[in-house]
Amino acid sequence: MQDEIKNINARQILDSRGNPTISVEIELNSGLMASASVPSGASTGINEAYELRDNEKTVYMGRGVLGAVKNVKEKISKALIGTSILEQRKIDEILIEQDGTQNKKNLGANAILGVSLASARLASKFLNIPLYKYLGGIYGNILPTPMVNIINGGVHADNSLEFQEFMITPTGFDSFHSGLRMAVETFFSLKKILKKENMITSVGDEGGFAPNLNSAKEALDLTVEAINKAGYSTEDIKICLDVASSEFYNDGIYEIKSENLKLNSLEMAKYLQNLVEDYPIISIEDPMAECDFEGWKIITDNLSSKCLLVGDDLFTTNVKLLTDGIKNNLANAILIKPNQIGTLTETLDCIKLAKMNGYKTIISHRSGETEDTFISDLAVGVNSGLIKTGSITRSERNAKYNRLLEIEGELNKEFQGCRGDGAKYLGLGSYKKRYFKLNSCSNY
């Protein structure tokens, strides 16, 4: 049959940090081929699926993935040859069964995900439809509101900031391309400000600037100044944070060394609440550590009506962990990273569960990225409404934005002269919930 898998190949390539990662290529009996490459995270949750590395210290400092490549070529390929490329769930179930562990430790989640994503891309190619349509059908037409990284900290930068990301999100516009333009202009407005203050303008892993700053408030002040200097207001562009608090949480204490603070869970929640009251913050990712369930309960009770509280390390794109969070009323949004769980099917199941329970979904990149644009199509296909794919200065990040611009053009062209309005961009609407009251910050 023309839709059956004939061969699966893999190779070791380099990600955006120069570390090895895996690229998988699948060929059908028809001769059609497609590939996918797998990203890697630096700030990783303890419950993430296992990324198989060679640990050969004399080769790539132990970061090689030739073992994962071998698993694809020898084990996975043998199990999937002859399977229809149109049976994504069956393909993923075979991968999960062949691995046989909860966290994909035998074959490696990187090996498994490469095959899973390449399968979906090849299926869309076989059907001669865009990937986002294969994933979402006729309903996939919402362009995500981007969370654009402009200041890096934490493990993504060599500076003193504990918070990992300070992001801007263009909420006051009616199209993706307009919102992206405003974000780009604000980014370069910030660069001018940093230069004027004799601060460094080198960038971190995700493309945001990485100046040495004394506090989160200083980073937020610079962000607001950049928005205003670019000619916009905080009604047009709002702020998102990735606190990545697990990185500085130990024995029940959040230690923010840059501000000489040691906070318990209640104090940390109050600290973040004060920031939300003082700045136009609309989303906070990982405000509490992944194991601090009491802290998550406190901050959800106190802040869920004012901004998104996004579980990344807390949920790791895992249906079981999300189910527990829903039962305990923790967070109100989830970050979706396919490599945290290992297959496309499990990723889609997690998105479905989140949406059914009123949790916002944010499709996300990783700090070690490739030029692969799968997450752009995924964001549109599932109508997530939100995407996080870094800043606008590195090609592995811009590849995702450029793919979204391409999708926007395709959707608008398709609907030209027909009923419907093509690509939709919700802006502020992407953040709204029935119980979510946007903060109107009087200071700005």
In short:
By secondary structure, the protein is α/β, with parallel strands linked by helices. It is 37% helix and 18% strand. It is built from 13 helices and 16 strands.
Description of the molecule:
The termini are far apart. Helix 7 (265-278) runs parallel beside helix 8 (293-303) and helix 12 (374-381) packs across helix 13. With 444 residues, this protein is of the alpha/beta class. The strands form four sheets. The protein has an eight-stranded mixed β-barrel, surrounded by six helices. The protein has a three-stranded antiparallel sheet with strand order 1-2-3. It has helices at residues 66-80, 88-99, 109-126, 131-136, 176-196, 216-229, 265-278, 293-303, 319-327, 338-341, 344-356, 374-381, 395-414; strands at residues 5-14, 20-28, 33-37, 142-143, 145-152, 165-170, 237-242, 249-250, 253-256, 261-263, 281-285, 308-311, 333-336, 360-364, 386-388, 424-425. The protein has two domains: 5-128, Enolase-like, N-terminal domain (Enolase-like, domain 1), CATH 3.30.390.10; 136-430, TIM Barrel, CATH 3.20.20. The protein has 13 helices and 16 strands.
What secondary-structure arrangement, pairings included, does this model have?
Layout: E1 5-14, E2 20-28, E3 33-37, H1 66-80, H2 88-99, H3 109-126, H4 131-136, E4 142-143, E5 145-152, E6 165-170, H5 176-196, H6 216-229, E7 237-242, E8 249-250, E9 253-256, E10 261-263, H7 265-278, E11 281-285, H8 293-303, E12 308-311, H9 319-327, E13 333-336, H10 338-341, H11 344-356, E14 360-364, H12 374-381, E15 386-388, H13 395-414, E16 424-425
Parallel strand pairs: 4-16, 5-15, 7-11, 11-12, 12-13, 13-14, 14-15
Antiparallel strand pairs: 1-2, 2-3, 5-6, 6-7, 8-9, 9-10
Helix pairs in contact: 1-2, 1-3, 2-3, 5-6, 7-8, 12-13
